[in-house]
Amino acid sequence: MLTKNGFAKGKIAFYCRMLKVTRQGFYNFLKSLSKPYKYESLVALIKEIIAEDECNDTYGSQRIWESLMFLKETTNPDLIVPSQPTIARIMRVNGLIQKKKRKPNGLTKADKMAQKSDNLLNGDFKADKPFSKMVTDITELQTADGKLYISAIEDCFNNEILAISMADNMRTSLCVETMRAAVRAHPRLRGATSHSDRGSQYTSIEYRAALELFGIKQSMNSAGGRCHDNAKCESLWGRFKEELIYGRYKTEKMPMEEVKSLVWRYFMGYWNNRRICSANGGIPPTIKRKRFFQNLGLAA
Hints:
Elements: H1 12-19, H2 23-33, H3 40-52, H4 61-74, H5 84-93, E1 133-143, E2 146-155, E3 161-167, H6 172-185, E4 193-196, H7 200-203, H8 205-214, E5 217-220, H9 231-245, H10 256-273, H11 285-296
Parallel strand pairs: 1-4, 4-5
Antiparallel strand pairs: 1-2, 2-3
């Protein structure tokens, strides 16, 4: 005979002894089955956060917790947010924890014969204000029309992508155009320090002349091949491909123009304005920059 909960009646004492639980504990368990899940509404909210943007399904428990705290701060002050470990447990129990995907390899090659610049950052990628330190690098994606090369500049203050350029080649002009776009969009960049690896694009006379024209100080890796000297940009590409590309899009079968649009929307729309960034205290990059200038009484 079965109980109303589907458990066989009979030697309950024997089962409890074998499972090392008390008889009362067993009955309390049966009683709990009829109660609604304590975190049912919170699970629904977490699923809403994950569904808001295509790449939010890569959020771990830390960024989900920060997303909930951001919601509480901006739109729902009555929201009760449990601790981050509790959020991790809730996500794990409900199958909402995502496994990490593979990481990309580096792209640019060091020019050992070219003139070098000093490593002005020395691994210190922290900045106390916007537009003071930035990192830059190139990555690639295979498309149906050939390789697409992506050049980006990231602000060390808030991880904001200040500019991005794309082309079917990785000539110096691609990097120059990225810097030109960054200065055009953010005039306060004049006087900033820009860090890169020792790729031939960044050691070229053309690129150095552009930096001088734009009033930008150049910093470079300490030695060729030491990718940790530009770890911030390497991390940027890793997150980009893990969140947007791997397991989601087969860019090698897509037209190059379609891939360009995909990349642009990810960085200039999602990454800058909506993606929760733990390094920013759980807010998107542009929000952190705006709050900085608001505190100073200046326009962002």
